[in-house]
Design a protein that fits this description.
Number of helices: 6
Shape: globular
Structural class: mainly alpha
Strand content: under 5%
Helix content: over 70%
Largest sheet: none
Order of helices and strands: HHHHHH
Distance between the termini: 58 Å
Oligomer: single chain
Bound molecules: fe (ii) ion
């Protein structure tokens, strides 16, 4: 496989390690310090899932040998999204919050193992180098756009708009 084709998996693995690091930080944080790393984790996971669901999994789903693994992976994404919504509705300081977070943490780590040990190695039999190179390029673009949009609409964007109103009421 061409060197560049590997780049797609390297990008995804880098995201995985970053999410795991954030989850570790959240687990170790005191109750009143969970919110900020959790918002970052939420944003990172949403961007990562979107990239995989838009550029990667639709290419694999029609392949008979990959179908069951992909369906399983998509279910795991959905479970994680549901747990994140639950965490957003639950008070950060509550005992329940940590219980739900532990389920998310365990589910995400298991999902990363499935992807890295089964899906990534197996799918290279079916995808062309060019497919992987295109996916890497599209993923980088998509992530930049998503993060820029979140920065505009998220708390940083709100602070910027507030400052703009103070200058030009
Ligand atoms: Fe992933
Ligand atoms: Fe995934």
């Amino acid at each position: 496989m061409a060197q560049q084709a590997h780049q797609f998996f390297e990008l995804l693995k880098k995201d995985h390690r970053r999410a795991e690091q954030l989850m570790q930080q959240i687990s170790a944080a005191s109750r009143d310090q969970r919110q900020q790393p959790f918002s970052t984790l939420h944003m990172e996971l949403a961007a990562h899932f979107q990239i995989e669901e838009k550029f990667f999994y639709p290419k694999l789903l029609p392949i008979e040998d990959m179908k069951a693994l992909v369906e399983d992976a998509l279910d795991e994404h959905q479970t994680a999204k549901d747990l994140i919504s639950q965490l957003e509705r639950t008070g950060f300081a509550s005992e329940e919050w940590l219980e739900i977070f532990e389920k998310l943490d365990e589910g995400i780590r298991h999902h990363h193992e499935d992807e890295e040990q089964e899906i990534f190695p197996r799918c290279t039999q079916f995808l062309k180098d060019q497919d992987l190179t295109d996916m890497a390029r599209k993923s980088v673009q998509e992530k930049e756009q998503l993060l820029a949009r979140t920065a505009r609409t998220g708390s940083a964007g709100m602070a910027q708009r507030k400052r703009a109103r103070e200058i030009h009421p």
